[in-house]
Amino acid sequence: MSDSAPTISCGTRTRTQPEAHLRAGRLAAALVATGIGRGDRVAVMARNDIEFLEVSLAIAGAGGNPVPVNTRWTAPEVAHVLRDADVRLTLAHTEFIPVIEKACATAGIRPSIIEIAMPPELLEEAGLDPELARPTGRHPLLEEAIATHPEPLGHLEGAIADSMGLIYTSGTTGKPKGVLRQRLTAEQLLAIAGATAQRMGLTPGGQMLVAGPLYHASPNAVTVLALRMGTNITIMPRWHSERFLRHVHERRIQQAKIVPTMLSRLLSLPAEIRDRYDTRSLTHLVHSAAPCPPAIKRAAIDWFGDAVTEFYGCSECGPLTWISGAEWLAHPGSVGRPADGSAVLIADEHGTALPIGSTGRVYVRGPEFWPGFGYLGLGAPDTEVEGMLWVGDLGRLDEDGYLYLTGRDSEVVNRGGVNIYPAEIEAALLGIDGIEDGAVLGITDRTGDLGEEIAAYVLARPGIELTADAITAALRGQLAADKIPSRIRIVDTLPRDDNGKIYKKQLRDRLEDRGATRRP
Hints:
Blueprint: E1 7-10, E2 13-16, H1 17-33, E3 41-45, H2 50-61, E4 65-68, H3 75-84, E5 89-93, H4 97-107, E6 112-116, H5 120-126, H6 142-147, H7 159-163, E7 166-168, E8 178-181, H8 186-200, E9 207-210, H9 217-229, E10 232-235, H10 241-251, E11 255-258, H11 260-267, H12 271-274, E12 284-287, H13 294-304, E13 308-314, E14 318-324, H14 325-330, E15 337-338, E16 343-347, E17 360-365, E18 373-375, E19 389-397, E20 403-408, E21 413-415, E22 418-420, H15 422-430, E23 435-444, E24 452-460, H16 468-476, E25 487-491, H17 504-510, E26 517-518
Parallel strand pairs: 1-10, 3-4, 3-5, 5-6, 9-10, 9-11, 11-12, 12-13, 24-25
Antiparallel strand pairs: 1-2, 7-8, 8-18, 13-14, 14-15, 16-17, 17-19, 19-20, 21-22, 23-24, 25-26
């Protein structure tokens, strides 16, 4: 802890949080002057940087609703969100101005655009073209908007509640859906903030590291809360395994939010590199968003101890289950038990509860303080279980109430009438020495009559040579014969978003026989 003002750092740039709050207040005044009011949606398409947080605070301070946009999306994908959310204004880094302009043309809309200039330090840290430091000149600049309003906007009662009305799902299995929340009460806001800070390990004056994308709901919400609490914040513009460890070591980081893919990449570092860095300051290394293979989870707990914490949740209902490292060792493979008044039910497609240990649909209800919701333009969700929601996940509960996810309904492989869950095969793949990442999906069996066959994409750890035959041999002792992939492809990369979710549709669309090995 330090008596000095808390800071936000990104690369070689550092700004005190009082200065960031002042800049956000002045920008909020500029937004109000342009006509942004209560509940107006304002899109943000920017890389991880200090300005991303200032812009988020400013929109909320003006009573607007920030709508972060995935920086990997193409113009048609961005156009969907801009049109669907009826965006009034967009703030974007120079890098994304052409995408925003094309998206607006595609959507047939003309929202105002404010360009966020990209500092050379950000470009260097992120490994981007230095020419991006030159603004397009086609739109007003963020710094100009701040400069025109020397006085910050005063406090607007209820503005924070207004700012949290709409978020979007990730869109990995289809178009992102707008989750329209009921307006939060002051009591709900305090309860959510308190529970998040406690479970995520945020403290005033503490040290947190932002390793995931700020456009994603979870890292965004946690980081904005940390900023409001006065937690020192270090932002990574992009993931880099050794740099993550260096930040933890040098800044004595206590809290970081990551995804399982990041854990796997940390474990790919040679032992001599890992041993250079002291990570004992970590009290909360929190992961979520995608299944964590047991081999990766166990190795992470061996390294980081009980700092490894996991939660399972969804955009609609927030965090639902939590599990510590010690709990996981007693219940390996689990994503935890319901917390804070949330609930989980395993049921069939008709909503009938299934016995303990049976696999079925995972119906959930959010924490007791979580707001109700509907989908923008679609209304309340259809559900077979009153008061509970199914978002496509499958799983089971054990006798102690711990939840185990087995996959998503849309990914289940039907082979000869038998349901096979890709998550089980992916976990087995990730348990093989030398494999850093893997994805499994069902494809049409063109040579037989079993309906679908199993295809696997595998990414090797650096310096490791893998073959399809060796992988098949390693799986034979772990999986039944009908679960072993008949097609194995060794790849250089897998299409995951920055939050660890894999785009299996992209894999299926590009899967052609060239480069794939068929198991005899």
